[in-house]
Amino acid sequence: MKQNDANAERYIAIARACLKAINDTAADSGSREDKIQAVYQAIDDAFQAEFADYRQSVAVMGTVLEKIASGQLDADTAVSLARKTLDQQPQSTRNAMIH
Questions:
Q1: What confidence tens digit (pLDDT) does each residue in 7-47 have?
Q2: Rounded CA gap, 83 and 88, in Å?
């Protein structure tokens, strides 16, 4: 993976969260199961944070597509709404593989 790849930053952030959770639980006197659960939770939290922009962008685009699909917009308005929506999506969601 290239270092300037947008996904490299996501992988690094998730890996750091995992390593932090492992390091934090290593000194903990909790049960093995609690330590494993803490690492799983750190992984989930990191994924949720890294993909929040995607989820929000998909939700907005879904709403716009529903409005266009309703048939209540003329062609010019539908095109304009679609362009505005595409222009407002986060840079991280443009022409980049998610994984």
A1: 788 888 888 988 888 888 887 778 888 888 988 998 899 88
A2: 9
Q: Which two tokens stand for residue 9?
A: 């930053």
CA dihedral 64, 65, 69, 72 (to 10 degrees): 10
Task: Say how many CA atoms lie within 13 Å of 87 toward its Cβ.
Answer: 6
Question: Got the DSSP string for 10-39?
Answer: HHHHHHHHHHHHHHHHHS--S-HHHHHHHH
Long-range contacts of 15-22 (CB under 8 A, 24+ apart): 16/46, 17/42, 17/43, 17/45, 17/46, 18/42, 18/43, 18/46
pTM of the model: 0.56
Alpha helices by DSSP H, 27-74 = 32-50, 52-69
SS3 94: coil
Specify the DSSP class assigned to residue 9: H
